[in-house]
Specification:
mainly alpha, globular
């Protein structure tokens, strides 16, 4: 095999793999946006068609997961998710490039993926880890496959568990105080 034949084979293989990866990513995006559109329609989120617009669909993801976000943070979840992502990207691209901002973007992506999949399946952690391992190329397929599922009992949000313990302790104290006050002397 000559150097020319090797380079030709290498270029053909690289182009074939590049086209294959682009097709997988495009299919995942199309399936994921259709699945997100169906989920948003089922939950009666206004403007469900925004699922098909690449950056604006972050707002829709935020609105879909808003029921699972803890109480003080669930107002305007869609705008919060869209705003945080865009502001971190703007900081990263235009002002200051630092690994901290990339890590923050990754945490936001992981959390929103987990919350979206928690709305659809009983194994959101496993599917989120698979999404991370494949750089989110299979997330669209997971959303599309589970688009008809609606978890009857939504799992507790990860961040709300400490709040839930604090609230239950305060509630128990109020119940004990009410019982002590209602006893006759």
């Amino acid at each position: 095999m000559t150097v020319g034949q090797f380079l030709t084979t290498f270029v053909h293989t690289a182009l074939t793999l590049t086209i294959l990866v682009i097709l997988i990513i495009l299919n995942s995006y199309l399936f994921g946006t259709y699945g997100l559109f169906k989920i948003a329609k089922r939950q009666q989120v206004p403007c469900a068609w925004l699922a098909f617009i690449p950056v604006v669909n972050l707002w829709l993801i935020g609105e879909v997961i808003s029921k699972q976000v803890p109480a003080p943070f669930n107002k305007h979840t869609g705008f919060s998710l869209l705003g945080m992502t865009l502001s971190l990207l703007a900081i990263e691209l235009f002002l200051y490039s630092h690994p901290f901002f990339i890590i923050l973007l990754a945490i936001i992506a992981c959390y929103s993926t987990y919350m979206l999949l928690a709305n659809l399946t009983e194994h959101p952690l496993m599917l989120t880890l698979l999404s991370i391992a494949t750089c989110w190329t299979v997330t669209g397929f997971f959303v599309f496959i589970n688009r008809s599922n609606q978890m009857e009992h939504l799992p507790k949000p990860v961040l709300s568990m400490p709040f839930q313990k604090i609230i239950s302790k305060v509630s128990l104290k109020k119940i004990k105080n009410n019982n002590n006050e209602s006893k006759p002397l």
